[in-house]
Amino acid sequence: MKNLTIEISVQIAGYLLAFFLTITAFNRFTAEDSGYYLKQLAHLNLPEINSFSVAVGVVQLIVVAALLLPVSVWRQRVLTVYAALAMLPMLMLFTHPVWIDSLGGFPAIGAGQGLIKYLAISAVALYFAGYYAGNDRLQTWALRLNWLGVVLVMTWIGLMKFTQVEADGIESLMRSNLFFSWIYDYFSVLHGSYFIGVIELIAVLAMMMAKVSSRLYYLGLAMAGLTFIATQSFIFTLPAYSLDNGLALLTGSGQFIIKDIVLLASCVLLYSHHRNQTALTR
């Protein structure tokens, strides 16, 4: 990882974002996603737009083209627009029933766990917009949003691990996975959830130590990054995909899990930039 330059990290992060956008774009052309988006529009008291889901899929594929095709003026503009659009799902935290009423509502989050991941998705897109525009200030702000996006997810979902509702919710998911099932050999369902929550919060605390210790900061990024990598195994053990449409398309759970790919991209960008900044100050 010592040889991870900013240029290489940009390539890795770009491929990760492109992969996420491509694999989820296919879902946008299905009846399931069309119904989902119509339901969200109804929640917002907006008129039904039957092609809205398809439009979202097309936009995602355009962004993929912007990431993979040679640099041009339209590239940065597309990514800037997408960064803004990717923030819109966050607004659903205020308009949709995403809180767990049995735990008192806010901040006990239920369906919103997938929504808060869009902060990092938007931040990664914004970083690329700044990178292709050669705008250092925009890149700096985008990196701050990337940090906040990772910390937000790790903190919020980590704290939820200390509730019985979350512990019960992840049990079947964990038991079906070779990488995580061993936890229940040593802990109960609730304490196994505590164990995961503690690890996630330790990662957050380490990520807050950037100005105190680079090693601790790197440790936090590594813990978060490994978490996002490990969660991808759930796609196959859950399983989080369906063959009903003739193709292996992600289910709702699969789309929730695959978002961690972009959070991994955030970790890669944050790591390389911090190493570069540290090297310059020596």
Write the layout of secondary structure elements.
Elements: H1 6-25, H2 31-43, H3 52-68, H4 73-86, H5 88-95, H6 112-115, H7 118-133, H8 136-160, H9 164-175, H10 183-186, H11 189-207, H12 214-231, H13 234-237, E1 241-242, E2 249-250, H14 252-258, H15 260-281
Helix pairs in contact: 1-3, 1-7, 1-15, 3-4, 4-7, 7-8, 7-15, 8-11, 8-15, 9-11, 11-12, 12-15
Summary tags:
Ferritin; 282 residues; two-stranded antiparallel ribbon; 72% helix; mainly alpha; globular
Write a structural description.
By secondary structure, the chain is mostly helical. The chain has one domain (6-281): Ferritin, CATH 1.20.1260. The mean pLDDT is 92. It contains 15 helices and two strands. The chain has a two-stranded antiparallel ribbon.
- Give the percentage of residues in beta strands: under 5%
Using the coordinates above, name the CATH class.
Mainly Alpha
| Shape, principal axes of CA atoms | globular
Distance between the termini: 19 Å
- What about the largest sheet? 2 strands, antiparallel
**CATH architecture descriptor name:** Up-down Bundle
Strand order of the largest sheet: 1-2
Spell out the helices and strands N to C: HHHHHHHHHHHHHEEHH
Quaternary organization: single chain
In total, the number of strands is: 2
**Could you name the ranges where pLDDT drops below 50 across 5 or more consecutive residues?**
none
Q: How many whole angstroms does the radius of gyration measure?
A: 19 Å
Proportion of residues in helical segments: over 70%
